[in-house]
C-alpha cells in the first residue's frame, strides 16, 4: 500500500536528521547596525556575521543561541529577550574578529567605527630596549 505524504511533511522528515546534528551554541552580540541589518555574534569558538531577516532585533550583549557557525539561513533564539526567535542569514564565520569585521558590507555606516575600535585594541608594537 502506497501512502502519499504532503510535500511539507517530506521536507520536514528529510531535514530532521540534519537538524539533530546542528550543535546549539551560545554567543553574545558584539556589534550591530540596524540601518544595514547586520550584526556580529562572538561565541567560544569565534565570530559570525549575520544578516537580520525577521523577528526581534538583537541588541549589544544579548545572548544568542542556535547554530552560530557556518553559512545559510536559520533561526536563532535570543536568550536575553524571553527566548524570542530571530530569523537570520549567516554570512561568514571565523576565529578572526578583524577578518569578520572586514566582511561587513561597505554600505554599513558603523563598519568604520567597528574596524577603528579593533585597531585601537591591537597590541602596541614591541619597543627596543632604551640605549644607556
Report on the structure:
- The protein is an alpha+beta fold and 132 residues long.
- The protein has one domain.
- It is 24% helix and 34% strand.
- A hairpin with a 3-residue loop joins β2 and β3 (47-54).
- It has helices at 7-21, 97-102, 111-121, and strands at 25-33, 38-43, 47-54, 63-66, 72-78, 84-94.
- It has a 6-stranded antiparallel barrel with strand order 1-2-3-6-5-4.
- The radius of gyration is 20 Å and the shape is globular.
Whole-Å distance between the termini?
94 Å
Describe the largest sheet: 6 strands, antiparallel, barrel
pLDDT < 50 stretches: 7-20
Average of per-residue pLDDT values: 82
Side by side, the strands of the main sheet go 1-2-3-6-5-4
Number of helical stretches of at least 4 residues: 3
- The value of Rg in angstroms is 20 Å
Integer tally of domains: 1
Proportion in helices: 10-25%
Secondary structure class reads: alpha+beta
Sheet-strand content, in percent, reads 25-35%
Report the order of strands and helices: HEEEEEEHH
Global geometry: globular
SSE diagram, text form:
Elements: H1 7-21, E1 25-33, E2 38-43, E3 47-54, E4 63-66, E5 72-78, E6 84-94, H2 97-102, H3 111-121
Antiparallel strand pairs: 1-2, 1-4, 2-3, 3-6, 4-5, 5-6
Amino acid at each position: 500500500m502506497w501512502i502519499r505524504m504532503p510535500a511539507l511533511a517530506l521536507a520536514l522528515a528529510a531535514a530532521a536528521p540534519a537538524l539533530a546534528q546542528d550543535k546549539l551554541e551560545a554567543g553574545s552580540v558584539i556589534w550591530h547596525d540596524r540601518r544595514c541589518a547586520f550584526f556580529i555574534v562572538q561565541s567560544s569558538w569565534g565570530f559570525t556575521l549575520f544578516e537580520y531577516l525577521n523577528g526581534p532585533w538583537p541588541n549589544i550583549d544579548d545572548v544568542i543561541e542556535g547554530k552560530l557557525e557556518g553559512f545559510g539561513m536559520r533561526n536563532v533564539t535570543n536568550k536575553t529577550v524571553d527566548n524570542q526567535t530571530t530569523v537570520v542569514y549567516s554570512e561568514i564565520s571565523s576565529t578572526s574578529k578583524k577578518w569578520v569585521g572586514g566582511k561587513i558590507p561597505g554600505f554599513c555606516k558603523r563598519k568604520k567605527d567597528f574596524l577603528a575600535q579593533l585597531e585601537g585594541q591591537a597590541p602596541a608594537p614591541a619597543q627596543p630596549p632604551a640605549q644607556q
